Amino acid sequence: MISEAGNLPAAFTTFVGRRRDIVEIRRLLGSARLVTLTGVGGVGKTRLALAVAATCGKAFADGCWLVDLAPVREPSAVAGAAATALGVPDLGARPVLDDLARHLAGRRALIVLDNCEYLVDACAELADRLLSASAELRILATSRKTLGVTGEHVVTVPPLSVPDEAVELLRDRATAVRPDFRITDANWAGVRRLCADLEGLPLAIELAASRLRTLTVDQAVDRLEEDRFKLLTGGSQAARPQQRTLRALIDWSYDLCRPAERLLWNRLSVFASGFGLDAAEGVCSGEGIDRDEVLDLLDRLVAQSVVLATEHEGLPRYRLLEAIRRYGRQRLAASGEEQRLLLRHRDFFLALAERLADGWYGPGQEAALARLRAEHGNMRAALDCGGDPQATLALAAALRFHWCADAFLGEGRRRLDRALAAAPEPTPARAGALWVAAWVALLQGDHPAAERWLDEAEELGEQSDDLVVGANVLSFRGTLAMFKGQRKEAESLFEDALAIRTTLGEGPETAFLLFQLAAAQTHPKDRRAAETGRRALALSQAHGERWARAHALWALSLDSWLHDDLETAMALVRDALEIERGFGDYVGTALMIDLLAWITASQGDHERAARLLGAARPLWRDTGTTILAFGPLLGVLHSRCEEAVVRALGPAAYEKALTESGRRHDGPARAVAYALGGEHGDDGGHSGTGERGAGTATPASTTPLTRREREVAALVAQGMNNRVIAAMLVLSPRTVEGHVENIRAKLGFGGRAQIAAWWAANQTPTP
Fold first, then answer.
1. For residues 576 and 551, is the Cβ–Cβ distance under 8 A?
2. CB-based burial of residue 482 (10 Å sphere; 0-12 exposed, 13-18 middle, 19+ buried)?
3. Average pLDDT, stretch 169-178?
4. H or E stretch including 106?
């Protein structure tokens, strides 16, 4: 007869965090008969399973039982181990599995089947047989591989949240070995860094905490950076061998893999920030792995929790925890393959960057930027690869829209400066990098540097008779002249560049050049800008291009406003900002919001104009420049708007509106969300739903949302779906769905758009 007490071991240490995970798993066990917890080694699957079982005593009258399979090596011994754990005698009269099934029939019990990964097939057979014998039985399995049994529900156990749960665990374990350990203001940054570097992995945190017996937090952080495997060798001597060191733990996982799986694991270590399937196939195939094998091998590594499947801005991605990646990198170095794989990695991402740049002026620009953001770490690694300065120049130039149309201007400047300094030879790659460097410098307001780079690029272009380089040099010389207030010279340069483009065939990239010409023609006494701008719009429209279209709309809006057509100007600039939602373009967004402020002030709404100027101010601050760097006309128009607003509101009220708005709407996404939020949006004492249906905003200071709900609301406001939010917050999509429903109920909203508008209007930092 099975005892009601079960055999769960007493916990020697406190269980930290995972409260929501426990609730979710208990809920699953209410309907699912087999739940398998998967996850990387050391993530705490066993502790979580035992914690769940410890809360289930009243739900299982016939007990909660732990079957530990770690010591078992032979599949035939699995049933015997389970029988021994449950106290079922093995009398040898019939198969042990039959005895187990008979004893469990009709009983309501929970079995924790722990460490199934070595014996997946035998465990699957055991679970299937026992569940068939007892309708009231529940099995909670832990395994780095799923069991593959019909009806199995799989829960991927994430690392602890950083800093909350991870810091709590570190504090608890460090205090156990060093009672005087405290987390203070002085060591808080180090504690958070340590937990972040360990990626919230419970075993790694516990091993690191054991080192705090003799090391300070900062020393532990430094040692971890030097060699995390040497540092993490402490821990309880009573632990299983594979848990005594992080290296031994990963050795254990490595030994579970087949040779081809190990080879792929080693090669995947060259990816610096996750990877897509195409990258894994392009970089890791060959010499032992056929390209069409990669998907299957990758799937097996995911099933064994070596590789984590994630998403980034809706893109399916894979990644290795840092400890897993470094381990694979050491194995790769020992194999003699490291340099070859690093060069393949660089060549793959150079080809990707060039393909995205060459196809920029067409559909899919937002998707291209999202891919580049996802690959940012890999692009950095490729730029740092070394070995071929010309390839580095080519890559730095190919990333031009990553630098200039997204939020990476500063890094683009540094990367281009460094690459140009390292490769002074007069090559085509240098010519291309020079005009890109000039573009970046222009957007930063550094006119002397831009002029210097353009001079050299022009010389190299003439030497090689490269018409593309010549057209780009003329184009950006025109931009430089326009920024200096030399309108006629700028027009002439743009027209010369257009003539070259025409000889090459008027492609969609001409739309950006037409926008530049329209901007140069924009003047109260000049009406040509409208026709040029319409040509740019038509060309963009014909090719499905959006980025140059947004800039052309800005130029047309400015021209309409200068000619007193406020209604058209307002519609055009709002259309431009709608497109800007998909880009991280600080300069373009700042110019558009500034123009929106001028139009708004002309309509008499000086308070909102002040807040719009405030929303643009941090964008200018973050680029390290001001609107004055983009031409004297814009500087004069900006100053006139400010003067009108100050006259209407008074200096103190203007500065207050400017400061409050700037603090609440930093970043292009938030600034655009506010700018398009309606006539009054979140303007202080104003009310009104606005164009996007924000409803009556709940003041940030009195928000009813919990910390987690505020995190979810922030990501909803960025346009992320539940699956992406779940991946970012390491939650289940169902949990995220529940949070979204709670947010809607608490705020009285009907949809996600209202949540986004509310968040933009009531941004509050999450603790």
1. yes
2. buried
3. 90
4. none
